[in-house]
Amino acid sequence: MDIAIVGYGFVGQALVQLIYDTKDRLRNEDIDPNIKYVINSKGGIYNPNGINLKNFIKFTNMDKDINLYNEDSTINVTFTDLIREKDVDIVIEMTPTNLNTGEPGLSHITKSLSNGIHVITANKGPILLAYDELYKIAKENNVQLGIGCTTGGALPSINSGIVELAGSKITSIVGILNGTTNFILEEMEKNGIEYREALKKAQKLGIAESDPTLDVKGFDTASKLLILTNILMKTNKSIEDIQLRGIDSINLSDIKEMASINKRYKLIGKSILSKGQVQISVKPEIIDANDSFYNVSGKDKAVQYSSDTLGDFTIIGGASGVVAAAASILRDLININRGYQYIK
Amino acid sequence: MDIAIVGYGFVGQALVQLIYDTKDRLRNEDIDPNIKYVINSKGGIYNPNGINLKNFIKFTNMDKDINLYNEDSTINVTFTDLIREKDVDIVIEMTPTNLNTGEPGLSHITKSLSNGIHVITANKGPILLAYDELYKIAKENNVQLGIGCTTGGALPSINSGIVELAGSKITSIVGILNGTTNFILEEMEKNGIEYREALKKAQKLGIAESDPTLDVKGFDTASKLLILTNILMKTNKSIEDIQLRGIDSINLSDIKEMASINKRYKLIGKSILSKGQVQISVKPEIIDANDSFYNVSGKDKAVQYSSDTLGDFTIIGGASGVVAAAASILRDLININRGYQYIK
């Protein structure tokens, strides 16, 4: 399987390492991974016979710029070169996400699919903004678009909805889809600290970003929920359709009051089908002690689906971090190779 | 898609009804279901152009023997006729399970796969006793064997393990896999009644069978866990390898004692990989209030997987009853039609 990696940050590095480490498992799946391109914003490298991963990992582990890796590869290669050559089976698109334009990911995905190349992406922007169009292009070109990593990484979410609810009508999607806010709320309760202090701790631990807006204001949850809802409930909603409130207005006193009656605040994303309309909200909600979301702790995430013929189910967990994100991309790659059609 | 239904009990009837009711959804999946055969222990009917489902449902709803249905079908048809004609794409095998011999399901599945016909089965016996062999036959004949209904019906279990943990090594499987025992234990706590009384209530509600041995002694849990473990953890275990204890020795006083310290007994099936060996047990275990299994209530089921690269996740829920069982068979059918390869 000839692979191009486009976008080479921490997850990209973890993915290359994981592909190298698990080559025996991949061989059991009849996959012989051959990474021909690694491209990032500054340039890219190319070896038509496949980059020697052992050497490449060693090189990049020393924190060297990939564009200097000329041991077995051509340097200064661009995405345009890749599209001209069309010599890969799959593009793994991992450039930084842009929720407003989707670029550069959107162009990468569009061009790859249009040229008959499968795509797996970890990039929420393009999927949020243009999934229907990308789906159409993939279908026309008889290739697959794997997006398992865009709605909660290792947490089985979008693919579970597609596979496990096949044939059933989904009537609601409810989730704790953002680990950072879940961690902050738990810290506030566990350690009796105010929001600001819990946020600082999360930032110190690398769980929250220095600008935490996307997480704490609910935009990250909203993005994931929109992808899930538009695909699984067949809607065409955008961020403006969501009743949105973050966790930054919750005080320690609110948390304590709930704790005293065995309840907890969680940042809940919710899409409910009612009278033919889907209503979407993202806001802190009060969760009862006998609800399966009550014990979703720390960085964990969860999603609950309700359906007409298969009932409800809740999925809790999925590891966080770059290795898990990489593993969730590899999971899509294996399932595409197994012949599973995300797009039909 | 030409279909044969072999075994026509409550789930079979629900499946025919569901296929009829959801034909628009199935059309969206490019499935035009054409049921050519319905065969049960007393005989069978056949229409090479497809049985008229509307008429057939009306007929069987009046509780008439299918073998009298000669409105548009040949009667007195047997499984041997089906195998001679080989004129279906898929056999849905739903004969009563036999955990000792696997028959008659085992023969049905073997012959269907050997003749290049996909199989979906709800029948635990053959899968428990001969999965490896059946897998091999399916692979040789380039057909699929769907078993999603054998390990908890609508609860996403075996397929989730295959799809959602693709590429990861599963290090443990822990589950509440039997709804009947879960219901009984909850009734004892909720209503302060002894085991005998709770069992009687479950029997009265049709949740427990008149001979409850398979459920309450843990054999049903053990069967499901064995299928999950042998396939997902690649072992070759049998019932003798399991440390097995049912719930029938639990008294109300035990339940009350646990409730007083916010704990609960649950019948837990557990397969743990440790030092290269998989240890399997099925027994009542004490579950803490902050465990995600604590709130798995009533007839609900749950399964938790741990893995090396994708972390842990827990799935809770999945409807009970014949419609949900039928829907979980239809789910396998749709996924096989989408090209998903359970067997590769």
Tell me the distance between the termini of chain A: 22 Å
Q: Which chain pair shows the most residues in contact?
A: A-B, 54 and 54 residues
**Strands across the major sheet of chain A, in which order?**
3-2-1-4-5-6
**Considering DSSP H and I runs of 4 or more, what fraction of the residues of chain A is helical?**
25-40%
Calculate the mean pLDDT score of chain A and round it. 95
Q: What would you report as the Rg of chain A, rounded to the nearest angstrom?
A: 21 Å
Name the CATH superfamily classification of the largest domain in chain A.
Answer: NAD(P)-binding Rossmann-like Domain
Largest sheet of chain A: 6 strands, mixed
Q: Structural class from helices and strands of chain A?
A: alpha/beta
CATH hierarchy class name of the largest domain in chain A: Alpha Beta
Shape of chain A: globular
Reading the helices and strands of chain A in chain order gives EHHEEHHEHEHEHEHHHHEHEEEEH
